[in-house]
TrEMBL record:
Subcellular location: Cytoplasm
Originating organism: Devosia ureilytica
Keyword Transferase tagged: yes
Keyword match Transferase: yes
Keywords assigned: ATP-binding, Magnesium, Metal-binding, Nucleotide-binding, One-carbon metabolism, Potassium, Transferase
GO MF annotation list: ATP binding; metal ion binding; methionine adenosyltransferase activity
S-adenosylmethionine synthetase N-terminal domain residues: 6-130
Pfam families, per database record: S-AdoMet_synt_C (PF02773), S-AdoMet_synt_M (PF02772), S-AdoMet_synt_N (PF00438)
Enzyme Commission no: 2.5.1.6
Cofactors, names only: K(+); Mg(2+)
Highest taxon of the lineage: Bacteria
The protein, known as: Methionine adenosyltransferase
Length: 418
């Protein structure tokens, strides 16, 4: 029997965290390629990107495999596309560097050790492996295969308005609130820097979140004279604003900048890499994660698209009233279109048989990679905004972003299990 009263902790990191800087740059490049493909009349389904970013003191390195429109390729003085020694077209680094600088500037880095204008950016992108391409490109009437093998998990729980676990939802919300205040130069919040981490310990009673027992916040500050107590005075009103009324009590323990000063932040203080915050990106440890990162990947990579599909299905299951909690696993093999398995766990809260629901999920949504991309409309530049504050529990946007957060499968799901 599941425990009903317990403590659970999740953490989040801000968009200025070194790893998140890298996630942002990688996803800005995904968006750049989709935008350029549209301009060039290139089939968006032919776009391929697997982009990794490394950031350290005044240095950014962008590497990976891409298939891009000709507008992003390098041309010689004769106007012809430049080829490397293997005969593959060479990527023009200019627009990729520009995308990276714009991302760093938007985050807010203008410090001596990491500045959007002066940091060195190296672009080491090259063409996609032909051995991978053959498994994921369309050939006649053949279904498009998965871009890799793997397992993907989706989760939803009736704990927050967006059906996300409360600890990760509010850890994100704290940092989003502080970031908005910092960028608005809202009084003392303007003294904060881009790099920050939050952590909340949520108390559950009878299986429901009722308050926080511990709050941890470490945030960069630009004024070197600020003490931990000074920083707490700045951030506490925003943290209280982010959390539900009554969740903070006199017994709540605060840890604000517990090591003291935090002036040097971002990639100048610690190197960053794409894909190192997968628990922050998903469910804060409250549910399984398949292991594959999301950022920097086009939606033929099921690490990303199938994880979005699994979340979409889980959220619709809970929103339809079929369960209060739902975990869904999908599995794929490279070059194979249909999922190898669909697994559902309703954690004892289900109103329907899990085996029946597993069959229903395959009926209400085409779970092939192409089916997922079509259903969720993923072949478009919607990814930069996913790179911080979680890929889940966000509002679906008019531009098609966060389409996997919609609850438009409720009617179909109820009919399928009736």
């Amino acid at each position: 029997m599941a425990r009903s009263s317990y403590l659970f902790t999740s953490e989040s990191v801000s968009e200025g965290h070194p790893d998140k800087v890298c996630d942002r740059i990688s996803d800005e490049i995904v968006d750049l390629v989709f935008k350029e493909a549209k301009k060039a009349g290139m089939d968006a389904g032919a776009v391929r990107i697997a982009c990794e970013t490394l950031a350290t003191t005044n240095r950014v390195i962008i590497a990976g495999e891409v298939r891009v429109p000709e507008s992003l390729l390098k041309r010689g003085k004769d106007g012809k596309i430049v080829l490397d020694a293997s005969g593959a077209p060479v990527v023009n680094p200019a627009k990729f560097k520009s995308a990276a600088r714009k991302a760093i500037r938007a985050i807010g880095y203008e410090q001596s050790g990491f500045h959007w204008k002066t940091c060195r950016i190296d672009v080491l992108l090259h063409g996609q492996s032909a051995d991978i391409a053959v498994g994921v490109d369309e050939a006649g009437n053949k279904d498009v295969g998965a871009g890799d093998q793997g397992i993907m998990f989706g989760y939803a729980a009736r704990e927050t308005p967006e059906l996300l676990p409360a600890p990760i939802y509010y850890a994100h919300k704290i940092l989003e609130t502080l970031t908005d205040a910092r960028k608005a130069n809202n009084g003392p919040a303007g003294k904060l820097g881009p790099d920050a981490k939050s952590q909340v310990t949520v108390q559950y009673q009878d299986g429901k979140p009722v308050g926080v027992t511990q709050i941890v916040l470490s945030t960069q500050h630009l004024d070197e004279t600020l003490t931990s107590a000074d920083v707490r005075k700045i951030v506490e009103p925003y943290i209280r604003q982010a959390l539900p009324e009554g969740w903070i009590s006199d017994d709540t323990v605060w840890h604000v900048n517990p090591t003291g000063k935090f002036v040097v932040g971002g990639p100048d203080g610690d190197a960053g890499l794409t894909g190192r915050k997968i628990i922050v990106d998903t469910y804060g440890g409250a549910a399984p994660h398949g292991g594959g990162a999301f950022s920097g990947k086009d939606p033929t990579k099921v690490d990303r698209s199938a994880a979005y599909a699994a979340r979409y299905l889980a959220k619709n299951v809970v929103a339809a009233g079929l369960a209060d909690r739902a975990t869904i696993q999908l599995s794929y093999a490279i070059g194979v279109a249909k999922p190898l398995s669909i697994y559902v766990d309703l954690h004892g809260t289900g109103k329907v048989d899990e085996a029946v629901l597993e069959k229903a999920l395959a009926e209400v949504m085409d779970l092939t990679p192409r089916g997922i991309r079509t259903h969720l409309d993923l072949n478009k530049p919607i990814y930069a905004k996913t790179s911080a504050y979680g890929h889940f529990g966000r509002k679906a946007g008019r531009d098609g972003s966060f389409s996997w957060e919609k609850t438009d499968l409720i009617k179909a799901l109820k009919a399928a299990v009736a």
